[in-house]
Write a structure and sequence with these properties.
- The chain is mostly beta strands.
- It contains two helices and 14 strands; from the N terminus they run E-E-E-E-E-H-E-E-E-E-E-H-E-E-E-E.
- It has helices at 65-68, 171-177, and strands at 10-11, 28-29, 39-43, 49-57, 60-63, 77-80, 91-101, 114-118, 141-146, 162-167, 186-189, 206-209, 212-219, 230-234.
- The protein is globular.
C-alpha cells in the first residue's frame, strides 16, 4: 500500500532481527558536503557507524528496516553534515522512535524500509522522494552513497563518505540473479561484469536518481561480483 506525504504503512517495533548481509566499491570520495547535505550516518552511542540514511524531513530519516530492527530507538544516534566520521563537525541527534513497513521480516522478502524520528531537527536540505516509477527504467543511472567497505574482503571501511554511479538493471536480469527477487518491492543496480557496488555498512544509504530518493541499500550476495547486482528497496512503493 502506498501512502502520501512521506508516510509508510508502518509499525513501531523493537524485536530480534533476521540476519542479512548488508551491502561503496569502485566509488570516489565525496568532497563537498553540499553535494549530499541530506546524507546521514547511523551510529551507536559510542560513535560506531553501522548504516547510512537520508533526511526526508528535518526530523525524519529514511533507512533500511534491517538497520534498526531489534535496536531500541535511544541506542541509535544519527549524524549529519559530516563527510569524515573522524571529525566532530555537523549535527547529531538520538532517535525517539522508528517505524518499519508493516510485514517486514527479512531484506530478501522486501519491505526493507524504515523511518526514524529524531529528537531534534537537523538544519540540512532534505532529499525529495522520487515521484514516478520512471526512475527504475533499465540503464537509468543512480548514485549510491555510504561509508562502507571498498572491497568485500577488506574489513577496514573508510571514515570518508564515498559515492558510486551505478545503472539500474532490468527486472528480468534481477530475477535471473536472485530467485526471491520481487519487482514490486525492490530493484537492482550494477554492471554485468561487477566492479562497482554498495557493500557492507552501506546498508540504509540512499540510491539517488535525478536528485531524488529512488532506493535504499538493502541486500545482495557479496559486493561487486559479476552477475550479482546490489538489491535496493523500491522507495516509491512505500513513500511518496
Amino acid at each position: 500500500m502506498r501512502l502520501p506525504a512521506v508516510v509508510l504503512a508502518l509499525l513501531v517495533i523493537t524485536v530480534t532481527p533476521a540476519h542479512a548481509e548488508p551491502r561503496v566499491v569502485g566509488g570516489v570520495v565525496v568532497e563537498d558536503v553540499d553535494e549530499a547535505p541530506w546524507m546521514v550516518a547511523l551510529t551507536t552511542s559510542s560513535g560506531y557507524q553501522f548504516c547510512g540514511g537520508a533526511l526526508v524531513g528535518p526530523d525524519l530519516v529514511a533507512t533500511a528496516a534491517h538497520c534498526v530492527y531489534s535496536r531500541t530507538p535511544s541506542s541509535i544516534t544519527v549524524v549529519g553534515g559530516r563527510l569524515d566520521l573522524r571529525t566532530d563537525g555537523g549535527s547529531s541527534s538520538v532517535v525517539t522512535q522508528y517505524q518499519i513497513a508493516d510485514g517486514y521480516s527479512t531484506p530478501s522478502r522486501g519491505k526493507d524500509i524504515a523511518l526514524l524520528t529524531l529528537a531534534r531537527p537537523m538544519p540540512y536540505r532534505v532529499l525529495p522522494v522520487a515521484a514516478t516509477t520512471g526512475v527504475y527504467d533499465a540503464r537509468k543511472v543512480g548514485v549510491v552513497y555510504g561509508w562502507g567497505r571498498q572491497e568485500e574482503s577488506n574489513t577496514d571501511k573508510s571514515p570518508l563518505l564515498h559515492k558510486a554511479s551505478i545503472p539500474v538493471m532490468a527486472d528480468e536480469q534481477c530475477s535471473a540473479a536472485y530467485a526471491r527477487y520481487d519487482a514490486g518491492a525492490m530493484f537492482c543496480a550494477g554492471y554485468p561484469e561487477g566492479g562497482v557496488d554498495s557493500c557492507i555498512d552501506d546498508s540504509g544509504g540512499p540510491f539517488v536518481v535525478d536528485g531524488r530518493l529512488a532506493g535504499i541499500v538493502s541486500w545482495g550476495i557479496g559486493c561487486a561480483r559479476p552477475n550479482t547486482p546490489g538489491v535496493y528497496t523500491r522507495v516509491t512503493t512505500y513513500l511518496s
